[in-house]
Each structure stands twice: as C-alpha cells, then as structure tokens.
Amino acid sequence: MLRLECAIQTYDWGKPGLESAVAQLKQEGDDHFEAQQDTRYAELWMGTHPSGPSTVIVPAGPKKILLKDYLDAHPEATGSASVAGGDLPFMFKVLSIAKALSIQAHPDKRRAEELHATRPQVYKDANHKPEMAISLTPFEALCGFRPLAELLSHFSSFPEFKALVDSDLVNALAMVAEGSGKEVEAKEALRKVFSSYMEAPEERAMAELSALVARLERKQEIERDAGEAHDPLESLILRLKAHYPGDRGVLCPLFLNYVRLGPGKAFVMEANEPHAYLSGDILECMACSDNVVRVGLTPKYRDVPTLLEMLTCASGAMAVTEGEVLAKQEGQEHRLFSPGASIPEFEVETIKLEKTTGGCSAPFAWKGVDGPSLLVVLEGAGEAEEVRGSTARLSARRKTELSERALSLHKGQVFLVPANTGLAMTSSRTSQRLYVALAHANFHGCPAV
C-alpha cells in the first residue's frame, strides 16, 4: 500500500469549511492542509484524471510522483486491469453538496469522441462517464425522467408549467402513456415535450416561472399559518428558485425523479440520462472522464441542443440499491456496489469494522483483486497489513493480532492498493469504528441495479 495525496475542488455549490466532508477528510489526512471557513469545498478527487491527479508519497523518496507515472512504471501493480499509460479506468470522489449541481447528463463513448473532436475546449476528453453515487449522509437528487403518469399529473397541478409546453405535444404524450404507443414512441414523445419546455421563449418562461413561484409562496404562507406541512416537491422548487433565480432548471423537478436517500443507499446514472445532485455527502465513482453537458441550474455554459439530442428519454422510477452483502457478522460488514456487467470500469466495496468488547474489532481479510484499487478511510482508525495473492486469507496467528508490519490507518488517508494484494484490517483500540471504501475495476460483473 502506498499513501496518496489527492486534489480537492472548490465550487460554489460545495459546503463551507469543516461543514464539508471533503474538507474534513482532507484536513484529517493531510498535515499541510487547513480548511478555511469561507471556502466551499466540493470534491475530493482520487485517481489519474489530469484535472486533479493524485500523487504517490514515496517512502524515503526524494519527491512525490504522479500516480499515473507510478502505475506506468510499475506494471506489477496493475495486474490484468486495463491501465493504458498508467491511467486508471475510473475516478473516485467524495462530494459535499450544499446546493444543487447543474441539470446535466454525460455523453456515451461515441458522442464523447465526437464532442471532443469538434469542441475540445469544452469537452476535454473522449471518454464516456457512467457514474454511481453512494450516500454518506442524507442525500437528495434528481435522476432520470419520472414515470409518464406522474409527469402528466404535474401538467394538471402546475398550470404555469403546462403553459410552457405545446399542448398538442402534451396530448400526444398522454396517448402513448395510456398504452396506445410503443416504447420508442413514448421516448420520442417525451423528448418533444422536454424540448418544447427547454426551448420556450425566455420572456414567457420567466413570466410563468415567476407566477408559479409567487403562487407557491402564497400557498406555503397559508400552510405555515395553519400549522400544515409543506409539499416536499413544492419546497424544492422554491429552494432552487432562491439559489438560481431566473433559471428554467428550477422547474425540472417536475420532469425528473426526486429521490431522498439515507446513508448507505446508492444508484447508477448511465450515460445520456438527466440528473442533478441537490444536497448531502456522497461517494461517487465513474469512468475516468470529466465530460458534462449542462442545461440548467448553472452559470456555466449550457449546451441545450446537444443534451436534447443525446438523452435516451427513458422514464420510470429510479432503481436504488443498498449493495450486495458479501460478509456480515458481529462487528463486520462488507458490501459490494456494482454498476452491472455493462459498465466494466468500476465498482466500489465498503467495509465497516466495529469495536467489540475486546477493545478493537476482529481482524477482517479483504481478498484483493487483480487490478489496482484506491482505498479511502472515511471514519475512524485502525491498522492494515498487506497479504499477497488475490485469494488472501488471514493465518491463524493473524486472527489474534496483526504483525509489526501493519500500517496505521486513520480518517482522511487515501492509499493505492496494488493488484493481487489482500489486506488484513482491524479497527484500533481508540476508535469505535473503521469505515473504508475501495474502488477498482469491475471484477464481479453483478447484475445491474
């Protein structure tokens, strides 16, 4: 295992100072970093992407070297994984979200190559970017188009919203939703409805948005006076309006699934699917790309024509998973979060070790995989000893205590685990829990969630 130093990104939507899980991890794991309360820390990047590359801290070495260069020079660390030129096939991140990210989608491989070839200044690489989000704290997101029946009900409940879409297109969508059309026809009808909304004249869009917001504000004032609860979707629209005034993305929750997840829940966003993360702290793993096509809730460049063309326009409730339990016994829990066999670039494992009455957790054996892994310590402290071989097991002696070669682990540290290197891990006597996450190429090929 080799310690890594990882980049952080500060964006307007990030959480300030040590309210951010990103800042907490960076400060705990890097003696040279001190979080500033007036800085918004949004993302911790782990991997080889040139926009935020990790470096290897070489023991007793003269200097740090890029992780990419280390892997290129040490093929034994990459095993059978495809690591061209030292580049990992995935990126691993922690995100801390105080307000909504943009309404966006990521291109598939073919379109990413086209966009990079024609507009490299905007789309800076030629790779696709399917991704998976795993919640660390309560997490809100918009992801994928709602079931058509829900969307159609919103045209009835929000007349200002309906006024921004061609009525003939709404009627056509209603017909296919009732079962008179095939799936391909339903997708095309939805594309036309969403396009009609996104392309509505700006002046009319802002007038209807203002009228809807004013109506919801009056409604919520009456509800407050009566001691009644607010509708969560309506509250979200008002919150987005406060953060992004004059942005038609404020009404995109009427199109997209609004999901609220507790810690440990996850979902996969395939290429060409619309989404926006709204609040919370998450782990995120994705193919190694930074391509984003945006259409709303952002001051950045919006590429509406490209997004409208690339969306699959699939609709339905979002699939949420808690991962596959690989091992669970007293004080130990090991889960696998896989995006499915169609996405070979990544998967994530989480390991939680709880202190027992003996003072520390029972040793846990992680077998390792035939490719490089990135490990981040999310909580607590402990120890890990390398065990060579992809089918590593703890010896009888290791089941009672770790050797003097064990490496100390504590919150915020990030490590490269070379291919075919297992780990014998335990929490420390001073910590209630050791919680780590490992990202690597998809070696399990589990069914899609």
Tell me the distance between the termini.
31 Å
Shape: globular
How large is the radius of gyration? 24 Å
* Helix count, DSSP H or I runs of 4 or more residues: 10
Strand proportion: 25-35%
* CATH topology assignment of one domain: Jelly Rolls
Number of strands: 22
Full CATH superfamily name of one domain: Jelly Rolls
Let me know the largest β-sheet. Answer: 12 strands, antiparallel
Please explain how this structure is put together:
With 449 residues, the protein is of the alpha+beta class. Among the domains are: 147-254, Phosphomannose Isomerase, domain 2 (Orthogonal Bundle), CATH 1.10.441; 324-440, Jelly Rolls (Sandwich). It contains 10 helices and 22 strands. The strands form 3 sheets. Strands 1, 4, 5, 14, 15, 16, 17, 18, 19, 20, 21 and 22 form a 12-stranded antiparallel sheet that branches. Strands 2, 3, 6, 8, 9, 10, 11 and 12 form an 8-stranded antiparallel sheet that branches. The protein is globular and about 70 Å long. Pathway: Nucleotide-sugar biosynthesis; GDP-alpha-D-mannose biosynthesis; alpha-D-mannose 1-phosphate from D-fructose 6-phosphate: step 1/2. Keywords: Isomerase, Metal-binding, Zinc. Its EC number is 5.3.1.8.
